[in-house]
Amino acid sequence: MTITHISEAQSTSSDSPIIEQPRMSVIGTGYLGATHAICMATLGYDVVGVDVDENKVAALQSGRVPFFEPGLPELLRTALDSGRLRFTTDFADAAASADVHFICVGTPQAKDSPAADMQYVDAAVSRLAAHLDRPALIVGKSTVPIGTADRLTTLVQEIAPAGTAVQLAWNPEFLREGYAIQDTLRPDRLVFGVSSDWAREQLSRCYTALLAAEVPLVVTDLATAELVKVAANSFLATKISYINAMAEVCEATGADVSLLARALSYDSRIGGRFLKPGLGFGGGCLPKDIRAFAYRAEELGVGQAVAFLREVDSINVRRRHRTVDIVRDLVSGNLAGARIACLGAAFKPNSDDIRDAPALDVARMLQQEGASVTVFDPEAMDNARRAYPQLSYADNLVEAVLDADVVVLLTEWDEFTDANPEILGRLVSSRRIVDGRHALNADAYRSAGWEYRALGRPEHPATAVFLADEPLPVALSA
Ligand SMILES: NC(=O)c1ccc[n+]([C@@H]2O[C@H](COP(=O)([O-])OP(=O)(O)OC[C@H]3O[C@@H](n4cnc5c(N)ncnc54)[C@H](O)[C@@H]3O)[C@@H](O)[C@H]2O)c1
């Protein structure tokens, strides 16, 4: 299914031939770029991955994925063995050996404002363009402020020896860490932001197998493609903060947000996905993307249209403080000297990504109030230790909870949600647990003598506890 929306005015012609099996470069080989490079090679293309980080390039070239992503190490080794994938730090090499160049570098939040820091995108595109002496397509995949592709088109065509024979397209990426391979090889949809038929055709040749498998394709102008990504992330963030706002109301009224979410989820117009109450969102995308979007909208004179995103952000951040409040309550209002086991560091399970991780934010706040905090995460320990050396870390779950006054579930890894409350109870000093992710069976914990607390749920539930812990009808999950 293809929905094309290029007006006559936007469509420009190019004499450059369409290359049926384009060779590709993928510039920036982090979570997004490494996955994209490996998956494109898996689809049969010749791919060179480019990064300024020599250690990352060396790791990938030697068959090691420098982050946690299920299935990716195996796929990397197969791709390297096929001879279709290699990695380099040399932009001249990338320019010479590829026809289509995917830009996958980071766009973090700027240090001094909510805007996106565009220095990495600008540097990557400029360094590449300087070597482009024949027709080429540069395809942005990074999440960027609206208007970036237009700006970069001018920049690239000024720098590149091939001038206007180099074109730009935007192909936003929607992959979820933890499901990155599946989301790359079987995405819900592809979005091509293009300014010419040539760019659309050439980009189609990069996804021949996916299009043949009838992955829906939406072809747009450049600005719409940029907007699709931030609009999608804003929607998801809003849905999460919506149910967390309801949790705040529940906390003031004795209502139970988990029952509320369940009742809402049966409404097919609402649905249960992303309606899960708890500690809220984090990671390298949603928080910085909604902030950058609100900032960019203001620059464009439409700040009011997305002013609600600031509230979405505030609700999200308040959940972290509220989690600390509940832990404090459980130790009689004073955290000083309390032994707190923090289960989880990654911003979500099945990832080692700790960027803007709610778990580590909570751990730090607890420590700042004098608690003795021990953190354990199945995969994110190295990243957490590097970023927050002031925290204490355990080597495993048992060590983390040993003699704890309160256990706090902050990232819902299976290892934590599968733990037996009775066995866990024998290890701690007091059976008190805060379920920051609404991921535990409250009834099982209470039956095993635990004081169970969760955001937006009453301390002593008056109603259908058993119903609340039944499997959900529609996945109330991200
Ligand atoms: N991580 C995700 O799940 C995800 C999903 C969709 C979109 N995105 C977007 O993709 C982009 C990349 O995100 P990420 O999570 O992969 O970031 P990341 O930090 O993991 O990777 C970025 C990579 O770019 C490299 N880099 C920086 N400057 C460079 C340059 N000038 N030339 C070459 N390489 C350079 C870095 O060394 C790093 O390896 C961001 O815009 C992000 O918002 C990420």
From TrEMBL:
Boundaries of every UDP-glucose/GDP-mannose dehydrogenase C-terminal domain copy: 341-442
Enzyme category, top tier: oxidoreductase
Pathway membership: Nucleotide-sugar biosynthesis; UDP-alpha-D-glucuronate biosynthesis; UDP-alpha-D-glucuronate from UDP-alpha-D-glucose: step 1/1
Any GO molecular function: NAD binding
Sequence positions that bind substrate: F174, L175, R176, E177, K229, F274, L275, K276, P277, G278, G282, K348
InterPro entries hit by this protein: 6-PGluconate_DH-like_C_sf (IPR008927), NAD(P)-bd_dom_sf (IPR036291), UDP-Glc/GDP-Man (IPR017476), UDP-Glc/GDP-Man_DH_C (IPR014027), UDP-Glc/GDP-Man_DH_C_sf (IPR036220), UDP-Glc/GDP-Man_DH_dimer (IPR014026), UDP-Glc/GDP-Man_DH_N (IPR001732), UDPglc_DH_bac (IPR028357)
Protein keywords: NAD, Oxidoreductase
A Pfam family assignment: UDPG_MGDP_dh
Domain of life: Bacteria
Residue intervals passing through the bilayer: none
Catalytic activity as recorded in UniProt: UDP-alpha-D-glucose + 2 NAD(+) + H2O = UDP-alpha-D-glucuronate + 2 NADH + 3 H(+)
Binding site for NAD(+): D51, K56, T107, T143, E177, K288, R355
Active site: C285 (nucleophile)
GO biological process, one term: polysaccharide biosynthetic process
Record EC number: 1.1.1.22
Stated family: Belongs to the UDP-glucose/GDP-mannose dehydrogenase family.
Protein's name according to its UniProt entry: UDP-glucose 6-dehydrogenase
The organism of origin for this protein: Arthrobacter cheniae
